[in-house]
């Protein structure tokens, strides 16, 4: 009597399906992080170039842009952009450090934008400059929504940093692709060139030591 064949293990197929799914999920989370960085930084840099406050003094219009009120949001947005690029150059725990830097930059951007939403010091400075007087205060002051756009951009940057901390270890890096070929080329070059004495001997024999 022939024995019945043993059933195939059921866990093989799910394992094979899960393996390629992990790199795909890592690439998706990396894409989301890059999108958050770009969108967040773009919102901040766009907003700080717009008028955040306006008023009048002696019949003259005075305005203050986000960069007039504070240079911190734009500087931190640029730091976040640079950190997004740096993610590809580092691996392991270093990515968590980069992610933490982006979180701090994003929160700092949001805080600076929130504080600048009601600021009038830059308006008073513009009024004093136009009148050539000191101690001038702008009147009929109004504020725009651009500080809140910058605040939103800062929050997006902070979310990108949190995503880097949580998922960054699984993301691909440039170093992983080029470390091994570089090492092989260095070893091959060392073998082919030899010592300086070997090079001189080859030249004396009329040989090309670099061939």
What's the gist of this structure?
With 211 residues, the chain is mainly alpha-helical. It is built from eight helices and three strands; from the N terminus they run αββααααβααα.
Q: What key phrases describe this protein's structure?
A:
211 residues, mainly alpha, three-stranded antiparallel sheet, 8 helices, 3 strands, 9% strand
What would your notes on this structure say?
The chain is mostly helical. It is built from eight helices and three strands; from the N terminus they run αββααααβααα. A three-stranded antiparallel beta sheet has the order 2-1-3. Helix 1 packs antiparallel against helix 6 and helix 4 runs antiparallel to helix 6. About 5% of the residues have low confidence.
Which structural class do you get from the secondary structure elements? mainly alpha
Secondary-structure element series: HEEHHHHEHHH
State the helical fraction: 55-70%
Number of helices: 8
Query: What is the mean predicted local confidence, pLDDT?
Result: 80
Largest sheet: 3 strands, antiparallel
Strand order of the largest sheet: 2-1-3
Straight-line distance between termini: 70 Å
Compute the number of strand runs: 3
> What low-confidence regions span 5 or more consecutive residues with pLDDT below 50?
176-180, 189-193
Oligomer: single chain
